[in-house]
Amino acid sequence: QLQFVESGGGLVQPGGSLTLSCELSGDALHYYSSGWFRQAPGKDREGVSCISSSGGSTYYADSVKGRFTISRDNAKNTVFLQMNNLRSEDAAVYYCNADRKEGVYYCPGDVHDEYWGQGTQVKVAS
């Protein structure tokens, strides 16, 4: 059974930075295309960024392009999301998910409900 554990969230001021981590247990991460997703209160979960299994290709939603950087360390079974110049609209609970099948924009081909972890909360306020 795969399990993702997200960490690294917190409270930052607008313009601040955070680095999120997502560690996979139960299988080797290098088999998986991975993605970060977020859900703000009252809104649907949305895709933020994705990375191919090798780490060689990435995708960013327009809202975060140029500010966020996704990376992975397959030896540590971990995917990262470096977030810079945070805005109030970035506040959300951030989650990761993955699939052995790569879909469009290097994102997981399927998003598995059973893989959603507790997420890590990001708050942006002055």
H/E series, N to C?
EEEEEEEEEE
Radius of gyration, whole Å? 13 Å
Shape: globular
Strand runs, count: 10
Give the averaged pLDDT, no decimals.
96
Strand content: over 45%
Global structural class: mainly beta
Summarize the amount of helix as a percent range.
under 10%
Total helical elements: 0
Distance between the termini: 40 Å
Largest sheet: 6 strands, mixed
Describe the protein in words.
The chain has 126 residues and is mainly β. It is 0% helix and 45% strand. The strands form 2 sheets. Strands 2-10-9-4-5-6 form a 6-stranded mixed sheet, with no helix packed on it. The radius of gyration is 13 Å and the shape is globular. It starts with a strand and ends with a strand.
Write the layout of secondary structure elements.
Layout lengths: L2 E5 L2 E3 L5 E8 L7 E7 L6 E6 L6 E3 L7 E6 L4 E6 L8 E8 L20 E5 L2
Parallel strand pairs: 2-10
Antiparallel strand pairs: 1-3, 3-8, 4-5, 4-9, 5-6, 7-8, 9-10
What's this entry about, in short?
With 126 residues, the chain is mainly β. 0% of the residues lie in helices and 45% in strands.
Quickly list its features:
10 strands, globular, 0% helix, 126 residues
